[in-house]
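Researcher: I'd like a structural prediction for the single chain below. Treat it as a standalone chain; there are no partners to consider.
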Amino acid sequence: MYLQMALVQKPGSENYSASPIFPLIRAGILNGDGKFACFAANWYYNRQCFPNRPLDAPKTLRELIIESIETMSATRLRQAVQNGRFPKEAAFQQLMNEAMSMKLPARHSITPEFGTIAVDSQDPNAKPVTGELDFYVNGQMKWCIEMVRQCDGIGEHMGRFKKVQDSKGNKGKYRKVEMKEYYVVDCRSAKNGRGASLEPHKCVLYFADDFTTCTCAIKGHPEVTINLQM
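Model: Treating it as a single chain, here is the predicted structure.
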């Protein structure tokens, strides 16, 4: 609450006693500029405000995806549809957003539907191309995730990240996003069978019929079988 109120205050206010952040300054958590006094103060504040968030983030985007799937609820996925059909993309996106929030420290924000814009400055006639990236993990991470289901349009989604022209002369709409890692995640049902082609930056998730388990396949890494929560 104090931090939210402090956002409308100017740091370095002369009358600290009247400021909403005064209790934090008096406690030694913030300094006079409204910044954390030290690393320990930052750690303490986040532990108090976000008690269930981890202190350290996964080292790679692959680890984040696997750990997030482990926290998903098989029951919620089953209840997302009727008659044993496969959940819509939005259902997977919602659960992934919740799961990633549980696996990342509070300092790493997750932006769903991250607005992107790309234009070639070398071409005076080029028009800006906009897009909406499913997830952007900010902070030091700069990780990007795009999600599809049942391989629907995966080629087009993979192309959104391309920095070079394709055979039609087009470049990816996400190419200007500052990123360190990215994956296009393909959520697939057991009925479709295994054997999807693998390529760099593509993650295939094979869910069991009852969603109790999921196999993660990424090129260059061994397949991992993940047990979901009940």
